[in-house]
What we know:
By secondary structure, the protein is an all-alpha fold. Helices cover 71% and strands 0% of the residues.
Amino acid sequence: xxxNFIIVAIYSYLLxxxxxxxxxxxxxxxxxxxxxxxxxxxxxxVLRTGKKSLAAATLxxxxxxxxxxxxxxxxxxxxxxxxxxxxxxxxxxxPIWLKFKGGKGxxxxxGVILALSHKFFLIFGIxxxxxxxxxxxxxxxxIASTLIIFLYSYFFESNNFSFILFIFFIIILYTHRENIVRxxxxxxxxxxx
Length: 193
């Protein structure tokens, strides 16, 4: 196997697997975020602690993981950008430190698309905000906005990222499978605006 694949795999996965939601809540609240709400380590669950500043910090740091992974790879291993993006994303969802039980991947995905294209990031942000205002479901907004990015890339962009964006969409569907069931049953929690 090419040594570059191994190098990119190691730093991308390890970056992705840093559980910032868990670290921040333990540090500042002396709580284990896995004992709060859904038990998830991501931004939405950190928000359930009532600390918006910690939720914002979790979002920013999880986003930064995806962004840095792609930017580093762009500078040193340009032909492995999609590979790096996917491994960082997978690292967040299945972190080795937490017995492979991590977040749902949306914030890290945001960092990845910000590094790939500012246009993707902007479209996702606008789509997510419109959907959250209309329906107030974070899960629905995230799933639909991820699909919109894939469709936009496939139909309107001439880059090579459509396939990896489709893979991200499928994985985000998977990580939100319980939310999808709750949406169907009308039992999903709404975000208070």
